[in-house]
Write a structure and sequence with these properties.
The chain is an alpha/beta fold. It has helices at residues 2-20, 30-42, 110-117, 303-306, 332-342, 347-394, 399-404; strands spanning 67-72, 75-82, 125-129, 134-136, 149-151, 156-159, 173-175, 180-183, 196-198, 203-204, 217-219, 241-243, 250-251, 265-267, 272-276, 289-291, 296-299, 313-315, 320-321, 408-411, 417-420.
């Protein structure tokens, strides 16, 4: 009886612990466990994934700042891996331009990597940050049909964002910050659940992306946008963060922007925004940060921005504002001059047009030269032909001279015919 009580004393807590163990740490299926070991190999054994053995149960690994794996019903539902490789997003992808300390080796295939990753079909959260991933993002990314959060920031992924990403209708957060993406952003209006869009630190543009109005956060800073702020933003009632700083955004600041009811952070710095701000402009009570610095704004600072200094941060240096107490402003002539330049086509486009014109001129010149040379040759041949016929008409050529300018055929040693061609030169004075 005593032994029974002892056994029950130890067994009861074990049963309680088993009952309280959440399903999120359930045993992972053999196939998905194998996939994670493939991921470890394809990522070339990053520090966050080191120390794994065949007996490691990845679902029971304690979460850390660099690794988090959540399992449910034998499947991985969340995978976060953070490496230590930085991404120089301003670099252009060229062979040999990235050192092994920044990217994965030349053997890495981003297509093969995502072919393996998409087999984790129950993933809801995927974060692959600072791992040195490089190459164009494959269109098969949309095979993550249940994905809600996609974060592939601070890598070396280049090329265009694949249009297939617009079919990932469960996405709530899309973060591709600090990569090397370029070109236009695909139409994201179908992503009606999307609340966070962060594409900062790339080379995307020139048009403002087409997005749904349920967004809470829009971050497009440090890209190649060259457009106006779209008027549709007025209907984004949930928008809290709007950041398009460090682009080539031009035109006036829409009067509705600072009065949007949910907006609390607005960053328009380092663009080509111009014109006057309405003195009677209304500012939302939720605003806590406004940065309109380093643009081409003129006139007076709106009263609502001036009165916000006690409860909010307002930055406006580097403009041409005329309010007397404002410092670090350019003269109004500066903004007028720079504003005129801002609406001109990009220098790159002009250069491309100039280069195209030069190439077309070169081709036309070559064709024209060839025509002239061909004409001279035809004229020379006709001239020689006529001169030769004239001499034959007025002068008898003796047999020996005629033989010099004729081609004779005589039997060869084996009874075959042998042709002898006489070359002659004509000197034209």
């Amino acid at each position: 009886m005593k032994n029974l009580r002892v056994c029950f004393t130890y067994l009861f807590p074990a049963i309680i612990l088993l009952l309280l163990t959440p399903s999120s740490v359930a045993q992972l299926s053999t196939s998905e466990n194998r996939i994670l070991f493939q991921v470890q190999k394809l990522l070339e054994y990053p520090q966050a994934l080191q120390g794994w053995t065949r007996w490691t149960n990845v679902c029971f690994l304690p979460p850390s700042s660099s690794l988090k794996i959540v399992c449910a019903n034998g499947h991985v539902t969340e995978l976060t891996i953070i490496g230590n490789k930085t991404s120089p997003s301003s670099h252009t992808p060229q062979a040999g331009a990235w050192t092994s300390l920044q990217t994965l080796s030349g053997k890495f295939s981003i297509d093969s990597f995502f072919t393996v990753m998409t087999k984790l079909s129950n993933l809801k959260v995927l974060s692959l940050v600072s791992l040195g991933l490089w190459g164009p993002l494959p269109s098969k990314i949309n095979r993550f049909w249940s994905l809600q959060v996609l974060n592939i920031s601070s890598n070396f992924i280049y090329g265009e964002i694949p249009p297939s990403i617009s079919s990932m209708t469960n996405l709530r957060s899309l973060v591709l910050v600090n990569n090397l993406f370029n070109g236009s952003v695909p139409d994201l209006q179908r992503l009606t659940s999307l609340e966070e869009l962060n594409l900062g630190g790339n080379k995307l543009g020139p048009e403002f992306p087409s997005v749904g109005n349920n967004l809470v956060t829009i971050i497009l800073r440090n890209n190649s946008l060259r457009s106006r702020i779209p008027p549709e933003i007025e209907h984004f009632d949930k928008l809290q963060v709007f950041d398009v700083s460090s682009n080539d955004v031009f035109g006036n600041i829409p009067s509705f922007l600072m009065s949007m009811p949910s907006l609390h952070s607005l960053n328009l710095a380092a663009n080509h925004l111009s014109g006057n701000l309405s003195v009677n402009m209304a500012c939302s009570s939720s605003l806590t940060f406004v940065d309109i610095s380093h643009n081409l704004l003129v006139g007076k600072l709106p009263a609502c921005l001036g009165s916000m200094s006690s409860k909010a941060t307002v930055l406006y240096s580097g403009n041409c504002l005329s309010t007397k107490r404002l410092n670090n402003q350019h003269p109004s002539s500066f903004c007028k001059r720079e504003g005129a330049l801002a609406v001109k086509p990009p220098a790159k486009k002009q250069q491309n047009e100039s280069n195209s014109g030069a190439k077309l001129g070169l081709v036309i010149g070559i064709i024209g030269g060839a025509v002239v040379i061909a004409g001279l040759l035809v004229f020379l041949i006709v001239f020689i032909f006529r001169k030769t016929n004239g001499e034959r008409t007025h002068h008898k050529m003796d047999k020996s001279v005629a033989n010099k300018y004729s081609a004779s055929a005589s039997p060869g040693p084996n009874g075959t015919s042998k042709a002898t061609v006489i070359f002659f030169s004509i000197t034209v004075n």
